């Protein structure tokens, strides 16, 4: 530190307090030369505070402007280039992974091993539906049309199964998303407008959220869940299907949410989500469809192919108005010869047949053996 003031060049003394510049010059000044009063000097000397003289303040301002116009622009450009390189590397990696998966499928087919639905899920199988809009057309006619439009050998489209569906449709299980896109593109180009070609999305697991203290729209609830819960923010899929009040407390609401498999498992383990200031409980909501015509599972009555009407209360063939039974009887457990049959076909807590089928469904849903 110099012994004279950087402004008046006079020596320092006890009667003339001084202040040191924390800027480029590192000079000291009499406080009255730079307009600093004693009260302000006490504040400036607090640890962590800095004081700059007029010249250093101007130089600092010029330096910050130069940095912003030159260096900051270069850094942003460098970050953009790095991001582009990362995106390109990620795309190449995904192509390699897809090729590896397809190669794995080919090896299993060549070795004669069966491809279970669980393995199909693991290998990114995508279901494509080809369906005619003309009533009465057979599955064979549809198959002939799709073969004329898309030759799987010439187009190198790989699929693992072709399944007949109702109304003359075909469900084609492609071995990858790339093959599915290629199939849908070629079929849409060569088939007339009388055919519908689209991807069939696999079912996602569902969760029930209980303890929401206010009613809101489905979109508002979705936005809150995404904004407040990092698990859902990073989720590939999240859809709020329903929001309604609980029976016990009309002022408390519950919701059904459709999520992807990893998010489902993480939220069940976590046990709760945040909605505004509510910590809401999370429960498993994966269930099976129950047909009230044949008492079967995995379909509803409007899509039931059975010609028999089975009353869900007593498992007998008659109309509801004709039933005089007072004790429930599950038709599914009767047919499966389970000892306990006195419960409803949809009772997930009592019906062993329902429980067994639900376990099988979850194995399919999560791709487990």
Would you kindly provide a written description of the structure presented here, covering whatever features stand out?
- GO terms for molecular function: zinc ion binding.
- InterPro entries: Zinc_finger_PHD-type_CS, Znf_FYVE_PHD, Znf_PHD, Znf_PHD-finger, Znf_RING/FYVE/PHD.
- Residues 2-59 form the PHD-type domain.
- The structure is a single chain.
- This protein has 369 residues and is α+β, with helices and mostly antiparallel strands.
- Among the domains are: 119-200, ACT domain (Alpha-Beta Plaits), CATH 3.30.70; 206-284, Alpha-Beta Plaits (2-Layer Sandwich); 302-366, no CATH class.
- It is built from 11 helices and 11 strands.
- It has helices at residues 38-44, 54-110, 117-122, 139-149, 152-155, 177-190, 218-228, 230-233, 261-270, 331-335, 352-366; strands at 18-20, 28-30, 126-132, 159-165, 169-174, 195-200, 206-212, 238-245, 253-259, 272-275, 278-284.
- It has a 5-stranded antiparallel β-sheet. It has a 4-stranded antiparallel β-sheet with strand order 4-5-3-6, covered by helices on one side. A two-stranded antiparallel ribbon has the order 1-2.
- The chain is elongated and about 115 Å long.
